[in-house]
Specification:
Length: 248
C-alpha cells in the first residue's frame, strides 16, 4: 500500500470527517440560536431570511478557492487532512505555504507525492496544526482587550484596527516578495540577469493572477461593483490555474 493510499484510507476519512461534522453541527446550532435571538429582540424575520440567503449566495464562489486548495494539497497529503484543515480553522494562503515549508524542512523537494513518507506527513500535519493554534490562544486571552481598542475604549483609542490592517498588509507583502524572489532566483539561476535557465512558468502564472486581481479591484472601485470583492481571490486563483494549464 502506497503512502497516498494510506492517507486516503477510510480511517483517515472517518477521523477527519467526524471532526468536520461536529464543527458543522456547532455552526448550525449557533445559527439557529442567533436567528431565535433576533426574533426575540424584534428583528424583522423577512430581512433576516434575506441576509441568510444573500450570505449563502456570496459564500459559494469564494469557497471555490478553498476547494482548489484542497485539490492542490490532496495530491501529496491525501484528501482528508487538507479537507479538515481548510474546512475548520485553516486558511488557504496559510496551509499551502506552511505545508510547503515543512516539506522542505524535512528534506523533500516540495509537496511531492513520490517523495512523501509517513514521517514527513506527520511532521507536515503537526506543523500545519500547531502553528495556527496561536490564533486560537490569542483570541482566548486578548480578544476582549482588542475589541475594546477597536471601539475606542479606555485602553485603546481605537488604534488597534489600523495597526492590524497595516500588519496584515505588511505580512502579505513579505510573503509575496519571498515567493517572487525565489522564482526570480530560479529563473536567473545566478548566471547573470539575462541568462534565463530556470522555469519561467511560476512568474507567468503569478503575472496572470495579479492582472486578474487588479481587474477585480478595478471593477469594485471604479465600477462600484463591491460584490466582486467576494469573488476576487477565487477568480484570480482560477485565472492563474488556467494559465498554468495552458502555458505548461
Amino acid at each position: 500500500m502506497t503512502i497516498l493510499s494510506q492517507l486516503n484510507s477510510p480511517a483517515m476519512y472517518l477521523i477527519c470527517g467526524g471532526v468536520i461534522v461536529v464543527v458543522a453541527l456547532i455552526c448550525v446550532l449557533f445559527m439557529v440560536r442567533a436567528y431565535r435571538a433576533g426574533l426575540a429582540i424584534g428583528m424583522d424575520a423577512t430581512k433576516m431570511r434575506r441576509v441568510i440567503i444573500s450570505s449563502t449566495t456570496f459564500t459559494i464562489l469564494p469557497a471555490v478557492g478553498i476547494l482548489l486548495g484542497v485539490i492542490a494539497l490532496s495530491g501529496s497529503l491525501g484528501t482528508p487532512l487538507p479537507w479538515l484543515r481548510l474546512s475548520v480553522i485553516g486558511a488557504l494562503h496559510y496551509e499551502t505555504q506552511v505545508a510547503q515549508g515543512a516539506a522542505e524542512a524535512v528534506g523533500l523537494s516540495g509537496l511531492n507525492a513520490a517523495e512523501m513518507t509517513a514521517t514527513a506527513f506527520s511532521t507536515i500535519a503537526l506543523v500545519m496544526s500547531a502553528c495556527i493554534a496561536g490564533g486560537i490562544l490569542m483570541s482566548i486571552f486578548f480578544t476582549k482587550r482588542y475589541t475594546s481598542r477597536l471601539s475606542g475604549g479606555k485602553s485603546g483609542g481605537g488604534l488597534a484596527g489600523g495597526f492590524g490592517d497595516k500588519a496584515m498588509t505588511a505580512m502579505f507583502i513579505g510573503l509575496v516578495s519571498a515567493y517572487i524572489g525565489n522564482y526570480v532566483g530560479q529563473l536567473v539561476s545566478g548566471k547573470g540577469l539575462f541568462t534565463f535557465t530556470g522555469s519561467w512558468l511560476p512568474i507567468a502564472v503569478m503575472a496572470v493572477a495579479a492582472i486578474a486581481m487588479a481587474f477585480f479591484i478595478w471593477l469594485a472601485e471604479k465600477k462600484k461593483a463591491a460584490w466582486v470583492e467576494n469573488f476576487s481571490i477565487a477568480g484570480s486563483m482560477l485565472c492563474g490555474m488556467i494559465a498554468a494549464v495552458l502555458l505548461g
